[in-house]
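User: Can you model how KG4 sits in this protein?
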Amino acid sequence: MKNRIRIIGIESSCDETSVSIVQKSDNKIDVLSNIVKSQIDIHKYYGGVVPELAARAHSDVIDKLVSKALDEAKTTFKQIDAIAATAGPGLLGGLLVGVVAGKTLAHYLKKPFIAVNHLEGHALSIKLEQDINYPYLLLLVSGGHTEFTIIKNFNSYKRIGTTIDDALGEAFDKTARLLKMGYPGGPEIEKYAALGDENKFRLPMPLIYEKNAHFSFAGLKSAVANIVSKNRCTEKFKKDMAASFQSTINKIIFTKTQNAVRKYKQLVKSENDLKIVVAGGVAANKSIRKSLKALESIEDCKFLFPSIKYCTDNGAMIALAGIERFERRKFNKLDFKPRPRWPLDKNAFFMKGKRAVEG
Ligand code: KG4
Ligand code: ZN
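Assistant: Here's the modeled complex, given as structure tokens:
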């Protein structure tokens, strides 16, 4: 095995098109380029991602992003060892754009094609910036995913908690929409919350007394909708509701993370310090980071947060997962089909509705 690997990573599963070149040389990871084109300007009018528009926007820019990523990395196609693309989970139209681009390059350049699970990208993203030994716990909180997964080893994942309805980012976005704030809602709620009274409204915390690591946010959003319908949506109301919502979310995340950490301790016997990697767009929220940090001394664990640019969707994490797969010769054929649903833990069952967490 040669000691320098360079891989193109393509990401197009949701509302960011991203292409990155990542190099591994003598065990050192370098992100040579990481170009991200957000589609927020397209979707903000609708208050959420419109799949058809997302797919078109990916296909409009994907070729230009590949050229830009190569230019910025001062790399030619000849110096590339393989092409990795997100093949799921995500919106099918977007996945098709990235996967077809990746396969076309692989075929034309006669290089291996690697189909990457987007969640594996998030799980490994911390390695773009620091060394970490397996095993560790992943808390992924984004617009599409909310889960605790034990990263036992490369390609060996066990999900121990998930949401039975909305993803956490979705709960932020829906609440922001109810409060007539902009999109994406998370950063808006965070801004308003800093100026409001978190004790103004008492909101429900679904599943909070169940000693598991599963979430439910639909009831919380309905409670907000109910209060909104009975009040005038003044600036003061928006600030107090945002503060109450965010503080309720913090309590939920704190308790469920404590449950997940305890479950991890039961399941994993390791000499290593217990590390929890928090990834996904919601991990940008400063109050959530602060509240999780308070668990460190209680549970004797440490939280690691990738930089924001690697928390949100990016091609670099896909290229990195591609490098790990390249080293293990885990290539895919050109007839690999994108998978809109693709759990990281193959044994994790589909969870929807309250009954799913009672068994
Ligand atoms: O990981 P991401 O960029 O895209 C995927 O969903 O895969 O996450 C986007 C989500 C959105 O729901 C957005 O509202 C949320 O992350 N988000 C935040 C913050 N910044 C982004 N939620 C809470 N607080 C934030 N500061
Ligand atoms: Zn993501």
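A couple of observations from the model: The radius of gyration is 20 Å. DSSP finds twelve helices and ten strands in the chain.
User: Helpful, thanks.
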